[in-house]
Amino acid sequence: MTVGALSGLDTIPASMVTSIDDLPPELIAQIFDEAVMPEQWDSKYTLRDLSIVCRRWRDVAYDTPGLWRYISINLDFIVDAASEARCRAYLDTFVPRAKGRVSLDVFTSFECNTYRTSIWLELRRLVGSVCWSFRLEAQEDAPQITACLDQLQVAPQLELLCLDYRLESPAEFSQWTLPRAPKLRELVWKTSYTMFRWPSNIETFPSLRSICVWAQMCDELDDEVQVVEIFSRCPHLVTLDLDLDGDLRPASPIRLEAGSIRTLSLCGGPSVSLMSTLRLPNLENAEISNIASSDLPTLFGGPLAMVTNLVVRYGVASYGALARSLVHCIRLQHLRLDPSDNEKLAEFLEVMSKPLSSTGAWICPGIISLTIENFKVLEKEDPLLRDIVTFARARTDPSHDDPGLVQRLERLVIIPPKYLRSNYSFRDREYRLLNSMLEGLGLSTAST
């Protein structure tokens, strides 16, 4: 807008100018929601300021439940009777105005004290009645935490439960049972020493679509049973993230087909033995890390056989074994690797650059893109550069235009380590030369 246009605003008739006081309450409430951002932890201060501007603003704010539904509590601030009273007043103010639907975010890191007991009881009551989202981040071994979770039997409105509970050396393994929550759609369970228990009085969680479990398995408990029951309890599960460590009791593998799962992330060996006979016919995305080389054939011959997009992170010792195991993945199209050293990558490229001598078939014949992360050129004439070009030529050979034989590679992306990219003295001549050679083969080198 020009200066002349701005000066013309003075000639606008007063009847065409609208004051915020003339706006309907619904529009003011929408403006408040955009300004306050109630999901932010400090939104209560903005709400306080809005409510003291004038009586109409206060009435609109008080009558807009969405402004009061996000409640954040740091229990470390409750150290005496006065701070306990302030916390209770905060809850007594927000909960009624939220009108039956609240989201609770709770954090605690200090040792418990007697002033928090009543707050934990109130939190349990809210989760068991009007809470749709409950997030707890705790770094202490507190009886109140166990009581809040384990004695919580019913949560009729709960849709999201996120627990991040880390302990260095707990006195004993806590066994917590999930509440009866028929509306639960997302579960995040990150603990150091415990796995949740499924409730015995509810057979399935039909709304549960996403589960993330990072836990230490205990051979003294039936943790493996709880993992296996994920697939029978959650018939519509779409996303599963398992990071399991420790020892499991011997258990029968899961012999079923889970057609609803589209995304799977696996870290650690304990889950592989349980899932060896699991079939995921509609799996689209998978990510693996910290998987033993001996488990790779089982993994890709079973649950990951139908994956189309695969990411391989840390903890895979043999990339040669990885490449040979991918022979089962005939639908794989997009592969992303993060090898820890160049020798692993060279081993992988050697296997993938030619058909199998035994059958003449190509591994992953449908692959169309490969991304290599954290690739570092060690020297000016690094032989790995030649290996990459050899792989690219093999996968873009004109004789492979027949889709029945092997799909032509379309994209090959090389990403240097982040610490090199952020270094102002980083010389990327070798990378630019490599990309130029790949582009000369008709490949795209741009990351998506």
How does the SSE layout of this entry go?
Elements (H helix, E strand, L loop, with lengths): L2 H5 L17 H12 L6 H9 L3 H8 L7 E5 L6 H18 L3 E7 L8 H11 L3 E8 L4 H8 L9 E6 L20 E6 L18 E8 L5 H11 L5 E8 L16 E5 L2 H6 L9 E5 L6 H6 L7 E4 L6 H7 L8 E4 L4 H11 L16 E4 L10 H13 L15 E4 L3 H4 L7 H12 L8
Parallel strand pairs: 1-2, 2-3, 3-4, 4-5, 5-6, 6-7, 7-8, 8-9, 9-10, 10-11, 11-12, 12-13
Pfam families: F-box-like
Protein name: F-box domain-containing protein
Features:
single chain; 448 residues; alpha/beta; Leucine-rich repeat, LRR (right-handed beta-alpha superhelix); 13 strands; 31% helix; F-box_dom; LRR_dom_sf; F-box domain-containing protein; F-box-like_dom_sf
Number of strand elements = 13
Determine the fraction of residues in helical runs and give it as a percent range.
Answer: 25-40%
Q: Under the CATH scheme, which architecture of one domain would be assigned?
A: Alpha-Beta Horseshoe
Classify the fold: give the CATH topology of one domain.
Leucine-rich repeat, LRR (right-handed beta-alpha superhelix)
Query: CA-to-CA gap between the ends?
Result: 36 Å
